[in-house]
Amino acid sequence: MGGKNDVTCTRARGAESGDSVSKAAKLVRAGQLKAQLESGVVDLEEYAQTCVDGLQADKTWLVEGELQSAPDWPTRLAFLKFITETVEGMPIKRQEMVHRKIPSNEDLEGLLRRSPAFAREVRRILDELEGQMAEKAAAPVSLTDAIESGNLD
Q1: What pLDDT sits at residue 15?
Q2: What is the pLDDT of residues 22-67, one digit of tens each?
Q3: Are 56 and 73 a contacting pair, CB within 8 Å?
Q4: In sequence order, which residues have a C-beta less than 8 Å from that of residue 28 and are 6 or more positions away?
Q5: Which of 6-20, 102-116, 137-151 has the lowest mean pLDDT?
């Protein structure tokens, strides 16, 4: 200790969450914060002061016996996101709904019967796969080679 390059970090000022902020953090919709403030569950002064402290969060550390500080940008960004989500509301999350019917064997059989071109293409693919499988089965492979190549089929 006491060396030239000793550095001691302390918790960022403003990183502490007050009771009002922890209550407000449980809110999901923007209107809930207003209702909580009106009912007195969340103290507006404490909430506002904690948010201001979070937006002004600094990191403080000791270098060669001298205190130095700098803005704590991750904490500031987290508080800005928190304030936006509790006051303005959560952003609308994109949801992609894909509805697709998975064809059954009967569906595929009907398609093969109705479409000769589709049946020829399926036959070509099956013949190609059978040839590849026959080549793999015919080629002798040592266990060491299979392990090294990662091909344990």
Answers
A1: 44
A2: 555 555 555 567 777 777 777 778 878 888 888 888 888 888 888 8
A3: no
A4: 90
A5: 6-20
Element (H, E) at 62: strand 58-63
Contact 86, 25 (CB under 8 A): yes
pLDDT of residue 11: 44
Q: How far is CA 6 from CA 3, 9, 10, 64, 66, in A?
A: 6, 10, 13, 6, 10
pTM of the model: 0.41
- If you write DSSP's letter for every residue of 81-130 in order, what string do you get? HHHIIIII-PPPPP------PPP-HHHHHHHHHH-HHHHHHHHHHHHHHH
CA-CA distance, 107 to 144, in Å (whole number)?
44
> Are 57 and 76 a contacting pair, CB within 8 Å?
yes
Domain boundaries, the chain: 7-88, 105-149
- The dihedral through the CA atoms of 17, 22, 24, 28 has a sign that is positive
